[in-house]
Amino acid sequence: MNTKLSVVIDDFLEYLRKEKAFSMHTVFAYKRDLFQFAAFIEERNLPENIHDVMKKTVLRSFIFNLSNCRAKTRTIARKLAALKSFSRYCLKKGYIAVNPSKVLSSPKLDKPLPVFLTQSQAEKLNVTVPEDNENLRDFTIVEFFYGSGIRLSELHGLDIGSVDERHGVVRVFGKGRKERIVPLTSVALEAFKKYLQVHSNADPDKPLFINKKGERISRRQIERIVEKRLSRVSAQKKRSPHVLRHSFATHLMDGGADIRAVKELLGHASLNTTQIYTHVSREQLLKIYKQAHPRAQE
After folding, report:
1. Same-domain pairing of 175 and 237
2. Its pTM surpasses 0.85
3. Residue 159, strand partner residues
């Protein structure tokens, strides 16, 4: 099949957007990595036919070049993951007969422990539900993150109708537009009800969190709100919404929650992703030790 690499890349990105329902952020990441691969092919005057390009020798050469240019291990792993996904697509569509990326192994990555708040810090994060509109919105955003463990993209996409007050849950759309139902804390529900009272438009199809113009709040603004709130209780450099998601999962695990339940609440596709939260805080570890060991009290 005599098809140019650039054409297949465009088709693949469209496939990710329409059929896989990947976010624009994820699609852009794939686009950036695959365009770099295409540029590598062009710079070396290699044939641009997809059948000639998608060979293990070419893929290995690209990865070796990244290593020579001192690309970070995590960067190489991400680009290799993009190539592997693209290779599977090419095989599925009949552009190639064999998947050349199968023989390529990803570099081993050190998985850093997630940054999270202590339970004491989390308690100081949101104390009493405020009365004024802007602080009420910001309070509700933080409580939704910490109380439900949802992602930034999921909170950003919430509409008023996403919240089911009667059952105390919120409906979110995660990666790949997969829907899941997540419980809300009583504090989050109280803040939500008060927030709706001052909301200019209670139409269920309207965005839940809005700016002063009445438009859906931007992701960057949400990040700034969380950063400001976290700076009040923590000296950690990382102050993103994901810190609240990590805190949610860590505190559930410390409280004895089943890892499979945590996996479902977080919307993880694999239990392997959730296992990072099996680390136990020092306080919890000492508590278990004192309760379980016969000589601990001595």
Report:
1. yes
2. no
3. 207
